[in-house]
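Figure S4 source data
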Amino acid sequence: MTTTTAEPDGRATGATDGAGDTRAPRRTRTLATIGVNHALHDGYTDLIYVLLPVWQVEFGLGYVALALVRSLYVGALAGLQMPATALARTLGARAVLVLGTLLGAGGYALAGASGGVTGLCVALALSGAGSSTQHPLASAVIARTYGTGARGPLGTYNFAGDLGKAALPALAGLLLTHLDWRLVLWLAAGLGVVVAFGVATLLPREPVPREEAPARPHAAMPGAGSTDRTGFGLLVAVGMLDNAARPAFLLYLPFLLQEKGAVLATVGVAFGLAAVGGALGKAIFGRLGERFGVTRCVILSEAGTAVAILLVVALPLAPTLAVLPLLGLMLNGTSSVLYGTVPELAPHGRVERAFAVFYTWTLGGSAVATPLLYGPLGDAVGPRWAAVAAAATAFAVVPIMLVLSPHLARKP
């Protein structure tokens, strides 16, 4: 007879049929399904960068306006992280993930139907709202599914996201040479509907408990009993700077490439190269964080990011394309290490809330900083110096990381 058991904290451990434990296949299916969903949503996020030069010509936008267009998507994504987490306690994580993916796809379909900047902005905000469901819920699903062994799977999850960043923008760049940008967005929306159906079909029901029970943390749960709010706050600060540097640079990458003679197809390929490196960075640095420690890995990745950005600014087109995979590796290497540390520093073991807070502040900071700081900077001094400012932002992580290091050493 098939039975399902649960741990005291509400985590389903999977079904057994008398022939053995089936938790491993269940975990694999969960990770694979969530990984594909992550690839779609991260692909949606970076698809915007490839379209910025198109929208600049189509609507006559400056850098401030382009930064604002992108930030509407990211702002909605960041601002609705915690409401999405709360909604999952009522509807269940799977239902919210499916609805969010459908909303993200619907936003892109509406963007393709828009005839002006206002409609485009509304559509991108809706798509960002749909994507807000993905990060906190999916990360918490993995953290609870794998328990104390979650750091590696979280790295795999983030690796999957960068596969989407590599594939979707590169494919869109190639399609834009033959198709109207509106049709490209409709094709992206159709892909989202397919992925939503897959999540509804394959993701196990209720992989995240509807209510958290911080007063009775399970011993195997990462973050159980942690009360180091200062350490978690410093981790959020590091994440905010890291997430500000990445879009601040990527906002100007298409225009830097065009200055070097790149066409739209080359721009799409360039983002694909950076994303391939980013995927490797998230996979590699997630494992390196386990072996060599969080502090060393974050300092290496942020310093490497700053140097690689400066190389992209200074080099001609061909060497720049060669540097982009290395830049992507460094640019995204930090995030896997940070995501894997969130459950360990989650105050009072509230993993879902910790992920929601982390993503809200880090992505929200990016959404605010890009139009208010880096957009005006680009209009004032041009893409090259704005990219240099992004490099300085990445390097600013290093001293904060040194302050955070003792808190990591003391974690329970």
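Figure S5 source data
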Amino acid sequence: MTRLIDLSHTIEAGMVTYKGLPAPLICDHLSREASRANYDAGTEFQIGRIEMVGNTGTYLDSPFHRYADGEDLSDIGLERVVGLPGIVVRAPDLQAIGADRFEGRNLAGKAVLIHTGWARHWRTDAYFEDHPFLTEAAAAFLVEAGAALVGIDSHNIDDTRTRARPAHTLLLGAGVPICEHMRGLELLPDAGFRFTAAPPKVKAFGTFPVRAFAEVAA
């Protein structure tokens, strides 16, 4: 028996994920009331419409997000984002998370989820400022260690106070997908679970929201 733990934020109209990017617009394309004209009495449907950028809520970055010739969402095979053996690395006391946090751990082929606790600031101004991030050395270590996917419950896996993006550059350059804006990592064991974060199969698109979750033995 397993239990499922949701690791993704709810997408809501007007929600700001990243300052400077538009919030999603969620509305009816066809309302229930308007649909009644198309069906027999007592039958109605709603067709929803959403307008949003790919970087909304909890999302997965594919290499195409960083590299024009990189794999896009449609190129990422399910085996790379579904049922991955997972490991949680705890770093609640750090802003700059270095390679030393990952040393001595078997990371090869695993979804490496970095628990910073920053998700507690979600939907507040504090979420965007002085957030935890991976150093360039840490990203290089994860690539060398063979991580299959890297996730973090912070505003960005890189330090947004600068214009450089070494974690995205190194990880996506090595074909390692990134899952950002996660939540609930405090509910996971340090290891021994399966992780899934599958995006829709969209061509020529680099980033899209996912329903990230873990399967944990009950």
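The chain has three helices and 13 strands. The mean pLDDT is 98.
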